[in-house]
From TrEMBL:
Name recorded for this polypeptide: Reductive dehalogenase
GO cellular component annotations of the record: plasma membrane
GO molecular function (one): metal ion binding
NCBIfam families: RDH
Source organism phylogeny: Bacteria, Bacillati, Chloroflexota, Dehalococcoidia, Dehalococcoidales
Record keywords: 4Fe-4S, Cell membrane, Iron, Iron-sulfur, Membrane, Metal-binding, Signal
Subcellular location: Cell membrane
Co-factor(s): corrinoid
InterPro entries to which the protein is assigned, alphabetical: 4Fe4S_Fe-S-bd (IPR017896), 4Fe4S_Fe_S_CS (IPR017900), RDH (IPR012832), RDH_dom (IPR028894), TAT_signal (IPR006311)
Species of provenance: Dehalogenimonas etheniformans
Superkingdom in the source lineage: Bacteria
Amino acid sequence: MTTFHHTVSRREFMKVLGLTGVGAAALTSPVFHDLDELTASESGGWKRPWWVKSVDEPTVEIDWSKVKRYDHRTMAHSSYPNAQHWGAEKWLANRAESSAATKARVGTKGNTLRDTALGTAGGIFGSYRPVLPYITKNPKDGWMGLTPTDPQKLGMAKWQGTPEENARMIRAASICFGAGNIGTAELSGHERNLVYTYTRVGPKGNSTGDGFVNKWPPPAGYWRKIDFENVDVGYIEPIDGVDDCHLVLPDRPLWDIGVMIPMARASWSTTGSGNNSTKLSSESNSARYRMFHQSTYPCLQAFINILGYHSYGYGAGDGPGGMMPAEASAVLGGVSEMGRSSEICIQPEHGPVTGYYSIITDLPMMQAKPIDAGIFRFCHTCRRCAEMCPSQAISHEAEPSWDIPNFDYIVPNMINNPGKRLFWTNTTQCQGFSGINGCSQVCRGICTMNTEKGAMVHELVHATVSTTGVFNGFMWQMGKTFGYELLDSEKWWEMAPSLPTWGTGKSLWSSSLH
């Protein structure tokens, strides 16, 4: 593998593709030069590789007439819709078996003491979340952020900038606070239907657990209801005597900040005994929440508030939820494209190992365009994640579909929201299997786009699939030769001292991660 990376020249590789001569030069020459030539006015300060193109519509087709506001209490991780799909008895039996299987994995490969120490320590940030009530007793400060000061107290005028200037400013601040990058989109007209009707977390707890399988809906306190009203600034009020349950957004011009947090590619790709999950991959997954909720999110909200504007995000205790699907935010805001798995976005610079979040604000920002980097088109041909998925929950179909499959569900599919032409994933099958077997998160780890960026060939693969779909099948097969494979958990500990901070950038193991 290493020898291949060092000995195959660009010209030789192009001969393998059958792209030689003047036509090939027109296609590939820019890959090897600094051609990040998007202007600041078009990109809002984001200079991307030349092969990431801005387009008027997302590469995944959307029928806005069918996109309705979604109840996030019925998302894929919620026991209630999964229990309806399979039947309560079968689902609860699966949960019991899952608990026993988790205990049985203790001490196995990928779940050794040092693996467990890393995974547990990496998630300890959650213990610090309750500190907010000791700083402020006002629940809105968790949703709308703290305001250490404001323009009036500073003796200054409220910030005024053009939408383009504001987008560049927010991008700069977000990156300072830990984001990989951001997208920006105006929430006008049909985009408002992306805002949830209910969140899945409330001040008393989470509505997604097994306890509500047979007593739905959960009572107030285990969710927050979201509405739009004719007010200038959002506010929170009680429902059924429970504080912090009704989130009211102003029916005014609003913008979405889609935040991307890169995750560690190497640790995400690790597998344990029998390709089961590892504590290393779990840490990589939880790291995005640590980075966002402990740094990017509170700092960015405070930044916006100090400028004299408002923002709306995640209620207290709501780690992965927020106000709207973060993947939709990423696609509309030009951060990422959809992938073959309908649950995953793929980002050109960081691949599928990325976490997404959404913050709504009244600070006017430019509307970023969606992107076309050839990723979703590549997914039409590549079925690597589908073939490697241990639960076989990812679609093998050749073309995406507007119709949401019902799989083997007892009732109509409750989890997926219509209006997109996707390769639909059987989320209940995914959840049921991974609970028992410990999903190795292989769909992201094995993805051809989850690659080491230091080698020329990887850049060539990305640039080629962005320009033409002719060689997608070839690239998929060659991905195995390039070393796009999963990583043994013990190997990770050998290479980890040479990985960059957070494990998210270019590795010193530039020849191969594996």
